[in-house]
Design brief:
With about 325 residues, the chain is α/β, with parallel strands linked by helices. It is built from 10 helices and 13 strands.
Length: about 325
């Protein structure tokens, strides 16, 4: 049985990944400081409380276990906060990742799956965005992700540490079995915000700008189901464990939905009214962000199973109803 370290395994994507790894018969160790995750989201395996910013705790962790691979999800993700407090992002997303990679090198662990982001591309020069699109991040969050991708390439060349970087567009949805979902504080993702407005946990949802160059004037984004994302991670992990070379892939459905479309579909799924406030544009919001994921489909054999937005929203809605009942 292979042993996989999931860094940030108590968070949104990490916890769903953990569940999938356990179902695939891996021995999983979660390492998390619980700053943004939840202990009850770790559904099995071993749990170690710790922080990647502490090299000593990493050294103890790698001494206690013999890892076959590492999956790294422990990043701060708020773009606006990264602009206001870049030091926080460079310390956690960059310097702490260096600590993790150095621990891997010191303990001869040669397989890393890295949670990257479409934010590395910056303003889109064309849509859909493929892997060849120029990397020109426009905020510290995106910069940290792109810097780590470049560091991983250097660590491969110098130390033989193989990696796959997976660039998410908009991770969304929830565990179809209802055990896991998003619980960000504060919540900044559109679909959970819309569903909180539908359930009454939030008074309304604000749409920032309705004069973009899109059919209905609102921004278009590519939403990929959390289980589809995790499936891509599992395929990438299996390839690296089998000896594949390092790679980077964009992950999305290749289909964009506007903000208004998301709200309209959410109304249909929930059967609830969703109060909407029309706001002004925010700086840095591109009109369209849609992924070209053909490379991942070709090389990983990845086929998203939940491309239907109504299904994705329905999975998130069953979790939101549970949260509403617990309030």
């Amino acid at each position: 049985m292979k042993t996989i370290l999931v860094v940030g395994g108590a968070g949104y994507i990490g916890s769903h990944m953990l569940k999938m790894l356990l179902a695939a018969n891996y021995h999983v160790v979660t390492f998390d400081n619980l700053s943004g995750g939840y202990r009850d989201a770790v559904l099995g395996g071993d749990f170690v409380l710790g922080d990647t910013r502490d090299p000593a705790s990493l050294d103890h962790l790698f001494a206690d276990y013999s890892f076959d691979g590492v999956m790294h999800f422990a990043s701060f993700i708020q773009v606006g906060e990264s602009v206001q407090n870049p030091g926080k992002y460079y310390q956690n997303n960059l310097a702490a990742t260096l600590n993790l990679l150095d621990a891997m090198v010191a303990h001869d662990v040669k397989v890393c799956i890295f949670s990257s982001s479409a934010a590395i591309f910056g303003e889109p020069q064309y849509v859909p965005l493929d892997e060849a699109h120029p990397k020109q991040p426009i905020n510290p969050y995106g910069s940290t992700k792109w810097m780590v991708e470049q560091i991983l390439a250097d660590y491969d060349h110098a130390y033989g540490l193989k990696s796959v970087c997976l660039r998410y567009f908009n991770a969304a949805g929830a565990d179809p079995e209802g055990q896991l979902s998003e619980r960000h504080v504060p919540e900044t993702h559109l679909i959970p915000l819309v569903l909180q407005a539908a359930s009454g946990r939030r008074e309304s949802i604000t749409v920032y700008g309705q004069d973009y160059d899109t059919p209905d004037g609102t921004c278009i984004r590519d939403y990929v189901h959390i289980n589809d994302l995790c499936q891509a991670h599992l395929l990438a992990l299996e390839q690296l464990l089998a000896g594949a070379d390092s790679a980077a892939y964009n992950l999305g459905n290749g289909t964009g939905f506007s903000i208004k479309q998301v709200i309209d579909i959410a109304k249909e799924v929930t059967g609830e009214p969703i109060p909407v406030i029309m706001g002004e544009r925010r700086g840095g919001d591109a009109a369209r962000l849609v992924a070209d994921s053909k490379l991942a489909q070709k090389r990983l054999g990845w086929q998203p199973q939940y491309g239907d937005l109504a299904t994705l929203i329905a999975h998130a809605w069953q979790w939101e109803k549970k949260m509403k009942d617990e309030v």
